[in-house]
Each structure stands twice: as C-alpha cells, then as structure tokens.
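Example record used in the benchmark description.
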Amino acid sequence: MRFLSILILGLTCTFALAQNKYKSVLSSIDAHQDQYQSVAQEIWSYAEMGYQEERSSALLQKTLSEEGFIIEAGVADIPTAFVASYGSGGPVIAILGEYDALPGLSQQAVPYKLSNKGKAGHACGHHLFGTASAAAAIALKNHIEKQKISGTVKYFGCPAEEGGSGKVYMTRAGLFDQVDVALHWHADSKNSASVRPALANKSAKFRFYGVSAHAAGAPEKGRSALDGVEAMNAMVNMLREHTTESTRIHYVITQGGNAPNVVPDFAEVYYYARHLTRSEVVNVFDRIVDAAKGAALGTGTTMEYEMIGGTHELLHIESLQKRMHKNLETIGGYTYSEEEKAFAEKIAKTLGAPLDTRYVEGVVPYSSNSKAGGSTDVGDVSFAVPTVGLRAATWVPGTSSHSWQAVAAGGTSIGIKGMMVAAKTLALTGMQLLDNPKAIEMATKEFLEKRGTDFKYVPMLGDRKPALNYRN
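Model output (structure tokens):
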C-alpha cells in the first residue's frame, strides 16, 4: 500500500511538473502581449491585399528573425511568402500564418461604419492570424530551448489566402513535404475547435471580346462583349437548378463597358464554384466553361478564361482536433472590460441581435458535424500533412467575416484578447506534440487512412504561376 501511495504521488508530481513546464512558456506569451499587440495593429493599419503584403511580411520576418529563426524569403516564387525555422531534427511542427486584407472594406476601429480612407481592411482577421501564429512559433522555440529537446518549428508566412490561393503554390512547391503536423487558426466571433469542413473551390475570370460600334448609329456593326457575359450568367443561373444541393456558385461582373451608347468590346466576369468535394467542383466548373463557350458563340464574341484560384476541401484529423479542443478549453475564453462591452453592444445593434458572450467567455462544445461555409487554401496543406486548427473570438458575437464589423473589432483590444487565446492554444498543442511522438504517429496513421496511401496531389489551379498582380 505504501509503495502504491508513493507511486501515485510520483505520478502526480510528474504530471504537475509537465504542466508547469508548459505554464512557464504560456506565461511568456502573456508577458509579451504588448509586443504582439503592436505587431498586429501595425499589420491592421497596413491592410495590404493579396501578394502585395510587403510591409506585413517584412514585419513578421523581423519579429521571428530577432528570436533566432532562420528566414527563407520569397519561397514558391512569391516575394511575400516565407518560411522561418528554428531547431533541428524531428518532429517538425509547422504553424501557418496569414496577413492579407480584403479590398473595399476600409474601416476605422469604431462601432459604426466609417472608412479608414484606405483601399482594404482586415475583414478576415489575418493581421491577428499572422501575429498569433508567430507568438506560438516563438513559444515552441522557447520550449525546445528550455527542455533541450530535438524538434523543429517552422512558421509558414502564407500570402493571398483571400482568393489568391497562396498556400496552394507553397504546397505545390513541396514546402510541407518534411513536416509532421501543421497547426493553424482563424479569427471568428466564437471560441471553437470542432471539426469544421471547408468547401473545395475553383475560380476564374472569363473575358469576352467583341466589336465596338455606336449603339444607336451603327448597332449592326457591333458585337457586345457585355452580351456575352450576360448570356453566360443567364445560362449559369439556369445551371443552378441542376447541381447538387451543397454546390455554391458566385460571380461578379468586374468590367462591363464605360458608356451606354458604345457597344462594349470587352467585358469580364469573375466566377467561383464550390462544393464539399473537389471532384464535384471540377465537374461544375467544366459546365460553367461550357456555358461561357456557348455564350460567346451565340453573341458573336470570343472568350478566354484565366484560372485565378483553386483549393481542396479540408481534411480533418479527429485525434488532433480533439486535442486542440481540449487545449482550447484549458486556455479558456476571456471577459470584456466595461469599455469593450459598450463597444460590443453597439456593434451587436448593427447586427440586429442582443449581445451573447457565452462563447467569448467559454468554448463551443465539440462537434464532428459542423456545417461547411467558405473555402481556404489550408485545404491543400491538409492533403500534404496532418493538419489541425481552431477559431478564436476576435469579433463581436454574431459578426460575419468579410464585414466592416469584423474590421472594426479586429482593430481593438477585443481582437487582441482573442488573438492571445489562439496563440496560447496553438503553443500548448505544439508543445504536447513535440513531447509526444506517439500522438504524431497516431495522427499520421489516421491521415493516411483518410487521404489514401495512393493519393497524388493535383492542384486545382493547375500549373499556372502565382498571380503576383492579383488584387483579390
């Protein structure tokens, strides 16, 4: 009995020591909150769009370089993409970071719509994403140093997530081939680490060319490129009746002419096709292309299209996801200050719902049946390496991404508090994986079973080069 008591006491002490070694590293994240807040708010003020994130990328590279990370800049032929590495040997833990903003969503950090007099805004919280991931990477570096263990942490600076498919080019270039596990997170209005599907996506710009003429004086000589776009749109809208229920098709006319009395000789329409599986996306996209060809034939115009982006669906590894959820519960949420609550209540009024902070202060219960919403180029990473993520409450509850309300909250202490939750959850998960190779082995086994051992990666955007002149 005495031996058993000593054994239990020993195990208890060992567990406590393990928790303490994580606690000290997590505390170091809190100790540097002011620095991370400064980095995030600076990137928020830059609000640089996809592939144009020169200052944002440079700031994150500088932050990691000063902590001893080796920087490889301009990876995958993208000037604003980079990999920051620390350590040696395995396991190799990747942490993904994003930092691109969205066009047309310039907004000040106030609870009413007011432009910041810029072209873009961080309506998806990528300034927080990139910074929290850097904080977590630095925490893993500190853990490797303090525990004197083998292991490598790699921060992947990923540009142009918003439609530019930056991670697809990075995956295609083989940058994740030697990684054991990839960690990521995203801004949201709730704290959650459930299985959250993402739709596969394929996007392109369809360009129609016609013949200009005076619309009243010589209409018979004209061939309207805009007619080609409108005919295509009409056919695609009829196609919607004959697609699967979870198919999503979106478009916007980006160019349609300049004057009503001039037959447009050029017009362009930008399309997205989405579905839960990439095979169905390919099928739907091919039918959209056929509609464009028919529209050109019927209107006497010519058509060409350019692939803009394409992402795989998200492959979830449940053993990793449950670990991330447990760690998010351990870190917990946060409470609003009086000033933050007043701000949040004003935002909530613009959303037409009362303020509910349950999942700001706490965590959404774990689920394996969440509904798919948008798409992400993290999907391609998830088919290269076991990948796991979470969402943290950086916005006022009820806020949609890609909204002025998201930009506003992301520029305040509300966004920073959520960012810190994400940083610590990523760090805790990463430290556990560095210390527990068996957890990585289990995740790898599940990954290979789900993906298939004969899987061959084929990027949805083909062999095109990164669209460095891309503007979301």
